[in-house]
Amino acid sequence: MMTLTKPEQSGLYRCRSGSNDSQVVSSDHTVYIVSVNATVGESLGIAAFVLSLLALSINFAILFWLGWQRFGATLTINTAAKGFPGPEKSPKGGLPPTESDGDVYMNYTSQAYCDLDPTTVSVYSSLS
Predict the structure, then answer these.
(1) Domain parsing of the chain, residue ranges
(2) Residue pLDDT tens, the chain, 128 long
(3) Could you give the CA distance from residue 128 to residue 126 in angstroms, rounded to a whole number?
(4) What gap in Å lies between CA 109 and CA 12, rounded to an integer?
(5) Keywords in UniProt for this one (predicted)?
């Protein structure tokens, strides 16, 4: 078997078969090898195929990233159950604890002002 790939290999060829005692030779065959360049349609098809593979890989990367984010959030929640400190829970009043110097005031226009510290309750007629 012979494979012809270059235009320089064009020419007359004949086939032989058989053993040393008897050989069969075919008639001459003219073989022309022509180089063919890709057409515009073929080039566009190749470009479209490459772009679709790129889009597919980007979609897979986005899905992987979203899955990783979801897995990371689940992992963070599960670490609190394994002995690590979880997020702080707010007190029964529904407000998160605040850092202050101890004085908390309410401002009402129709009522007197009071200090909300339960250990020392003081009522003020005005707040300056």
Answers:
(1) 39-81
(2) 778 888 888 899 888 888 777 888 888 889 888 888 888 888 899 999 999 999 999 999 999 999 888 877 665 555 555 565 655 665 565 565 666 666 666 555 555 555 566 666 555 555 55
(3) 7
(4) 112
(5) Membrane, Transmembrane, Transmembrane helix
